Amino acid sequence: MDICTDSRQIKPGQIFIPIQGPNFDGRKFIDEAVRKGAQILDVNLEDYAKKYRKKLKCHVIGITGSAGKTTAKDMLYYVLSQKFNVIRTEENQNNEIGVPLTILKADSSTDILIVEMGMRKRGEIAQLTRMVRPTHTVITIIGNAHIEILKTQRNIALAKAEIFQHPIKGERENRFAFINFNTPYYGLLKTKVETHGFKLLPFKGSTKVDQTLNLCYEVGHHFGLSDAEIEAGLKQYQPSKHRMTIHKRPTVTIIDDSYNANPDGVVYAMQHIKRIRGRKMVVLGDMLELGDKADELHNSLIPEAIENEVSCIFTMGPHSSQMQSDEISIMNYLDKAKLHQELLQEIKPGDVILVKGSRGMKMEETVQFLLEKFQK
């Protein structure tokens, strides 16, 4: 179904669902949508998606985790598309609006539906799972994202484990759970998997990059793909916007991972750039929603940076400004314009520059600054 929920973006022939919420009422824009040539479907989006999901015969992969969800979703899309008709979550539409819209994109021709599922607090994954009803589940890693809200990493694991629910009438008997063997609270997740009747299929790896690649092989083999088909899919992989997007310029390589950041995601990005030839630089905006662990978790990145051959770090924000080290060059800023000025002076031909930070830090501004300074 070709659905739009924003009357400003309606195209003729699309279906307009007027979403209602605490601070908005989509019904006010029905007339505008009709004038633009849309068909109107005035329903409760979540309830409609639940009913629609019951009609789908395809496999449904639900992906959650503290970091790496979007990368895993996109990689699996390219891998599985070698053999199947696959629908996936677009960009980061992993919430109570994006998830049902993703479900409604599938139809009778869909072989596999991949749904990314995000959360900030307990109960949200359970709500999404009641719509998605995954036949296959993936948990990438249990980290510290949103620990300010959830207080402990164990609570984060319990929140992610809400993706495991008992089957309802009419669901497939065989359901599968791909769980990262290397993640904290693997044992808790394993118990939840087995209690709810899923078959456990663990994946592992010495680095977070290896773990994601091994997940792709595990899932690919499960669906009958050969190594050659999996490798072909990985070669075609294109990341979502602002997610490890590589911009190669004549003198430098700029890596835009500015969409969001948490400790595990930053480590993943640094492990990734280790594989790229050139001097490694990281521009890191504050990681938010870490509560009283913020300074500790920012500083925990220093040994990871050293391990992954990062030469220098430019930080932006009050939390990352606490990062100090005698072993690696760290420059702290509270003014982005000054950061840009001094970053430009530091960059040398051949450098690889990773830009990352939480959404609220707007580190895409730094990416845009670099792209304008280092044009093709």
Question: What does the model show?
Answer:
The chain has 376 residues and is α/β, with parallel strands linked by helices. The chain has three domains: 3-42, Udp-n-acetylmuramoylalanyl-d-glutamate--2,6- Diaminopimelate Ligase, Chain: A, domain 1; 46-236, Mur-like, catalytic domain (UDP-N-acetylmuramoyl-L-alanine:D-glutamate ligase, 3-Layer(aba) Sandwich); 245-373, Mur ligase, C-terminal domain (Protein-Tyrosine Phosphatase, Chain A). It contains 15 helices and 17 strands. It has helices at 30-35, 45-55, 69-80, 98-105, 124-132, 147-150, 153-160, 186-195, 208-222, 227-236, 263-273, 294-299, 301-307, 336-346, 364-373; strands at 3-4, 15-16, 20-21, 24-25, 39-40, 59-64, 86-88, 112-116, 136-139, 176-180, 199-203, 245-248, 253-257, 280-285, 310-316, 329-333, 352-356. The strands form four sheets. Strands 7-8-6-9-10-11 form a six-stranded parallel beta sheet, sandwiched between helices. The protein has a six-stranded mixed beta sheet with strand order 12-13-17-14-15-16, sandwiched between helices. Strands 1-2-5 form a three-stranded parallel beta sheet. The longest helix has 15 residues, at 208-222.
- Work out the number of β strands: 17
| Cα Rg | 22 Å
What's the CATH topology name of the largest domain?
UDP-N-acetylmuramoyl-L-alanine:D-glutamate ligase
Q: Would you identify the CATH architecture of the largest domain?
A: 3-Layer(aba) Sandwich
How confident is the prediction overall: mean pLDDT? 94
SS content category: alpha/beta
How many structural domains in the coordinates? Answer: 3
CATH homologous superfamily annotation of the largest domain? Mur-like, catalytic domain
Largest sheet: 6 strands, parallel
- Uncertain segments of ≥5 residues (pLDDT<50)? none
**Quaternary structure type:** single chain
Strand percentage: 15-25%
Task: Look at the structure and give the CATH class of the largest domain.
Answer: Alpha Beta
Strands of the widest sheet, in order across it, are: 7-8-6-9-10-11
Give the number of helices: 15
